[in-house]
Automatic annotation (TrEMBL), chain A:
Boundaries of every ABC transporter domain copy: 28-260
Protein name: ABC transporter ATP-binding protein
Keyword presence, Thylakoid: no
Domain of life: Bacteria
MF term (GO), any: ATP binding
Keyword Kinase found: no
Similarity comment text for this entry: Belongs to the ABC transporter superfamily.
Native organism: Pseudothauera nasutitermitis
Xref: PROSITE patterns: ABC_TRANSPORTER_1 (PS00211), ABC_TRANSPORTER_2 (PS50893)
Key words of the record: ATP-binding, Cell membrane, Membrane, Nucleotide-binding, Transport
Automatic annotation (TrEMBL), chain B:
UniProt-listed GO biological process terms: alkanesulfonate transmembrane transport; cellular response to sulfur starvation
InterPro entries named in the record: MetI-like, MetI-like_sf
Protein's UniProt keywords contain Glycosyltransferase: no
Organism of provenance: Pseudothauera nasutitermitis
Compartments where found: Cell membrane
Protein name per its UniProtKB record: ABC transporter permease
Location, primary (coarse class): membrane
A GO term from the CC aspect: plasma membrane
Gene3D superfamilies the UniProt entry points to: MetI-like
Source domain of life: Bacteria
Length: 280, 251
């Protein structure tokens, strides 16, 4: 399941070099990324890396450029400057070994749950797999998100949480190395959100996938992530970084969680003070 | 509204129209005696007679076939052009005024040219019907694409879908309700254009039949044909609505 990087065939020396770089720099590396909408710079000089199986939260207030950065890292948008490398290849379009989930499940209402979860597996730019393998992957993914038995339901019959589970299954069925998630639970009620956060951690561990989770919710970042990147400023940049060394389940360690929470809040206050001082 | 009223009111409307028809024909018959042939009773009796004749059904069959062929051409042209208009701002801008202009030309204006280019027979009728019906399909298709959920397109993009995959797997199924709305409007338009289009250069169909009754001075049959055209159009529209609803409920 956890396939190694596949360098261009026929050059063993290059392949070894590539494997070496990958282990040192991680699954995804971004170097000196700039992005602007016309004249408006959204972020500049963003460099980061995500290691295999690592859950990274990108935390920041709304409008600070998190979604835009995610889109660039996922290959949906090209940066104005800088480079994204995924599995040690320059990224030009969304990679077949990455998958996305968004705030809206965006299920296709004319397809049943199973077909929604399988959507895209047979596309031309996706790795070819036999129909039988495809079905077993989809069933496995649906079972993992707790939707076994609902394969033949229509999206209109699902609750918001269930729809988001299908979206998660659709991503898992592609067996991604890296899952990009843009505020995937922010439209859900608090109880469903907590369930989904635990489910996300559980399934990405089982699937050996890494995650880049965009969120504006400090608690979500602390409960889910192995590492937190704080984004902010104008134009945006990565302002601070924390490694979350709290054992899971993190709800059982309220002291450590609260300490980290206060640390992050203090950092946020500092950046805010700096920003207002800059204006004066 | 009580259900019984919902059933009785349309019947009342029809009865009132019948009374007015009868009154109009009677008044007209005072100055033009032959107008008495237009009266409802004679027309309905003629209709009952005609419905028993194979000839009438042949005319109906010819007309329905023309509707089907005209509609098929209109869909085959209108849907791709509508999708193109919806996904390409360049194409939409280049063709916007042109389409608005063409749409406002009565399709029947093309009749002389159509006959000259396509010859006498079914071909110019197909052309006129398709030309009249293509606009509601094209415009509804384009509106459907414009209203498509952007997140679906983002999903397709995140799967590196090819343009063909995006169109066939996301856009077309996503706008089927809009296309069906366009098709329903197109059927109505085709049915309206059909009768005059069949009055020129063809020797079968309901339009031809109406002219034929006039030439035979069979005015009761002429009125019968008018009633039949209305009734068939009504049924066609209801069938189209039913299909539309079925699609919307089926998912
Ligand atoms: N398509 C767009 N065109 C112009 N500006 C945009 C567009 N999308 C986002 N922006 C701007 O870029 C900035 C960052 O947006 P976004 O990445 O969505 O922030 P976040 O996800 O952190 O809330 C915002 O100021 C927003 O107004
Ligand atoms: Mg956002």
């Amino acid at each position: 399941m956890n396939a190694a990087a596949r360098p261009a065939p026929g050059n063993a020396a290059d392949a070894d070099a590539a494997a070496a770089t990958e282990t040192s720099h991680g699954l995804l590396t971004a170097d000196g990324l700039d992005f602007r909408y016309g004249a408006l710079p959204v972020f500049t000089e963003v460099s980061l890396s995500i290691r295999r199986r690592e859950i990274v939260a990108l935390l920041g207030g709304s409008g600070c450029g998190k979604s835009t950065l995610l889109r660039v890292l996922a290959g949906l948008e090209s940066p104005s400057a800088g480079q994204v490398r995924f599995l040690d290849q320059p990224l030009e379009r969304p990679h077949p070994r990455s998958a996305l989930i968004f705030q809206h499940a965006s299920l296709l209402p004319w397809l049943r749950v199973e077909a929604n979860a399988a959507f895209g597996l047979d596309f031309r730019h996706q790795p070819a797999i036999a129909a039988g393998v495809r079905q077993s992957r989809v069933r496995e993914a649906l079972a993992a998100v707790g939707l076994a038995g609902r394969e033949h339901a229509w999206p209109a019959e699902l609750s918001g949480g269930q729809a988001q589970r299908v979206a998660l299954a659709r991503a898992l069925a592609r067996e991604p190395e890296l899952l990009f998630a843009d505020e995937p639970f922010s439209a859900l009620d608090a109880i469903t959100r907590a369930e989904m956060q635990n489910l996300l951690v559980d399934v990405v561990h089982r699937w050996h996938a890494a995650v880049l989770l965009v969120t504006h919710d400090i608690d979500e970042a602390i409960l889910v992530a192995d590492r937190i990147l704080l984004m902010g400023g104008r134009p945006g940049g990565i302002l601070a970084e924390w490694t979350v060394d709290v054992p899971r389940p993190r709800e059982d360690h309220p002291g450590a969680v609260t300490a980290l929470r206060l640390e992050i809040l203090a950092a946020l206050r500092d950046t805010f003070t700096q920003a207002t001082a800059g204006v004066d | 509204m009580p259900p019984r009223l919902r059933f009785l009111l349309p019947l009342g409307g029809l009865a009132a129209a019948l009374a007015l028809w009868w009154l109009g024909a009677a008044l007209l018959a005072r100055s033009i005696p032959i107008a008495s042939h237009f009266a409802p009773l004679g027309a309905l009796r003629a209709l009952a007679g005609l419905l028993g004749e194979a000839l009438l059904w042949e005319h109906v069959a010819v007309s329905l076939k023309r509707v089907a062929v005209g509609l098929a051409f209109a869909i085959a042209i209108g849907v791709p052009l509508g999708v193109l208009t919806g996904i390409s701002a360049l194409f939409a801008q280049a063709t916007g005024p042109l389409f608005q202009f063409l749409r406002m030309v009565s399709p029947l204006s093309w009749m002389p040219i159509a006959v000259m280019v396509l010859g006498i027979g079914d071909a110019p009728v197909y052309f006129l019907l398709a030309f009249a019906a293509v606009w509601p399909i094209l415009l509804n298709t384009a509106a459907g694409v414009a209203q498509l959920d952007r997140n679906w397109l983002l999903l397709a993009k995140s799967l590196s879908a090819t343009r063909f995959e995006t169109i066939t797997r996301v856009i077309l199924p996503g706008i089927t309700a809009h296309i069906l709305t366009g098709v329903r409007l197109a059927i109505g338009i085709i049915w309206i254009i059909l009768v005059p289009a069949e009055m020129l250069g063809v020797d079968a169909g309901l339009g031809y039949f109406i002219l034929d009754t006039r030439d035979r001075l069979a005015y009761a049959e002429l009125m019968a044909a008018v009633v039949l055209v209305g009734a068939l159009g009504f049924l066609l529209d209801h069938a189209a609505r039913w299909l539309h609803r079925r699609w919307l409920h089926g998912r």
